[in-house]
Amino acid sequence: MRKCIFISILFSINFCFAQVIKTKNIDSGGSGHYQSIAVMEKSLPNFTIYKPKTLKQATKIEGKLPLIVWANGGCMDSSINHERFLSELASHGYIIIAIGKLQMNTKEREHKPTPDEQLLVGLDWIVKQSESKASEYYESIDLKKIAAAGMSCGGAQTLNIAGNNLIKTYMLFNSGMGEMTMASASSNSLKKLNGPILYVLGGPSDIAYDNAVIDYNRIKKVPVVLASHPTSGHQGTFAESFGGSFARFALDWLNWQFKGIDRSNIFIGGDLESYDNWSIQSKQF
Fold this sequence. Notes:
It is a single chain. It is built from seven helices and twelve strands. It is of the alpha/beta class. The protein has one domain: Alpha/Beta hydrolase fold, catalytic domain (Rossmann fold). The longest helix has 15 residues. The chain is globular.
């Protein structure tokens, strides 16, 4: 357990480092090489961290791990509806900072909307942790490999922080701006993108589908992929074991972007042999 240090310089600054106060195991820790775990940290109570359970072992094998900051559907303060997906990503050697307190079951509490820039709170926390020798996360995060991602309204929260210099790639699930303004994001946010972006949809029945197509056609400066599962609709495959094919698709993207595993055959070549009936298009690579 880690201790907190309090220093007062005109105002009180809390240098409370990693101290786990609640944990949860999901899908037996995922299907990857590293059994994952969801935790709530004392100094970051309004977020959930999904990570390899034995973080030191994972970093010994992988080196510093890529980071994902995650915003939830409805811009809500819980990632429980996405936990199988996020736990699966973590089991393959990723750390995810997700908005919302760790929730043990769906009936535990009422969900509420979160501030538009809440992702930056989690990002700022983990950056400080990775740089402090007092933290469990010290030298565990590769700050050159950070993705911002979200589902539905959480996708708008993701686009709201587009242009942040730390973010290298973006992933939007069941999300698209079109002509909307949401979570302080709009079509203007697309102009701020500073890295490749992946859209994953649930087919034409997904209420975000048309907006995502509009976004795809508008994006001119960065590589963009628009992929769609034919029948999952707006809820995607998040509720399936290990996050279903959405998780596999996200891992293919992340491993290509951050781990040097060539998946250009999928995202540029359109090879969907592993994704039955999916469709994909890409440009500007």
